[in-house]
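Holo prediction. Input below; ligand is 2'-deoxycytidine-5'-monophosphate.
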Amino acid sequence: MSEPTFPIASLTVPVIAIDGPSASGKGTVAQLVAEKLGFHYLDSGALYRIVALATQQKNIAWDDALAVTECAKKLTIRFNNDQVYLQEGDVLKDISDEIRTEAMGKGASQVAVHASLRAALLDLQHSFRQAPGLVADGRDMGTVVFPNAQLKIFLTASTEVRATRRYQQLLAKNQPANFDNILLDLQERDARDKSRASAPLVMANDAILLETDNLGISEAVDIVLQNYQRKICK
Ligand code: DC
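Structure of the complex:
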């Protein structure tokens, strides 16, 4: 795995952990909360997507835990705002679009079942905990990676609403989209992410549940910010 992008972080730096299933809107909400607070942002799903892409390029099967983990340990990853780069020889390649496909989302969910890979990605995720604070989104931010986060949010929506959002996102990007396939893929990914033995998608005991079926992005952002203010004023 690459050298941490940031130096070793202090445990006193505040973290807001936002977990939830695919297409729940957690990425957008997390990014906006980070922007409003001037905090750093960690898109932990991107890490699993990068591993899915890199292993596919090396013809490593996603169910080969050992080979996937060894490959991940050798990767040099760089983040710059929304952009994600992978070092290939002397070249730093922008893989931001390649990792955001449906195929890499599926692949990410498959490599993410391996406990050895999850362990190999821990230090890199912890290195994002930098002053003045961090907003981290994923599946296990509040349960495993940052269990002492100041605020934990579990952001979710019904499968139908999430599939509709994903469908509209793909159409907006002029990418092929079939609603029924998207719905099936989401159900399959939810089932895999929830049922795996290592760090499954589960709401932390001390998390706040945010259902977004009838909630706009800005309302969700405001609720997260209000809860954060409440927590830090205690
Ligand atoms: O958030 P996302 O859709 O980019 O995540 C892609 C997959 O990566 C998701 O289906 C499961 C996995 N993942 C994970 O296991 N743990 C995380 N913290 C983030 C993502």
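The longest helix spans residues 179-195. That is the main takeaway for now.
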